[in-house]
Amino acid sequence: MKVPREPEEIKALMHSVREGLRGVDDIDSDSLAVWSFNMLPKYLWECWKGELKEKGITWQKFLRVLKLRTIDIIEWGLYGRLSWGELVERIRRTVETYSERGGEK
């Protein structure tokens, strides 16, 4: 799975949602902000759906995989502590772990 273009517009939306939750600084607000409208999952699914389906990853399973990476998405999207490339690599490794191929290359 190759690294798609970094979706700056999705990152901006995450910031906007988080800003709208001003005064509520907690993990639930951060999680809500990065999962708003499922924009990142939809974007990545469109980029990778052929490969994901070949690995036995359905849309529903992909959402569960991404849920495991929520803190990484928060670190990338809200705090800038993780690069796009590193986020994608972590997601890719998690996909491999839970694919029907069991991590085979």
Can you walk through the features of this model?
This protein is mainly alpha-helical and 105 residues long. It has one domain (8-19, 26-98). The chain contains 6 helices and no strands. It has helices spanning 8-20, 27-35, 39-54, 59-68, 70-77, 84-98. Helix 1 (8-20) crosses helix 2, helix 2 (27-35) crosses helix 5 and helix 4 (59-68) packs across helix 6.
Q: Strand share of the residues?
A: under 5%
Helix content: 55-70%
- For the termini, the CA-CA separation is 11 Å
Mean pLDDT: 92
- How many domains? The number is 1
What is the count of β-strands?
A: 0
Class derived from helix and strand content: mainly alpha
Alpha-carbon Rg, integer: 14 Å
- The number of helical segments is 6
Global outline:
elongated
Order of helices and strands: HHHHHH
**Largest pleated sheet:** none
What is the strand and helix layout of this fold?
Blueprint: H1 8-20, H2 27-35, H3 39-54, H4 59-68, H5 70-77, H6 84-98
Helix pairs in contact: 1-2, 2-5, 3-4, 4-6
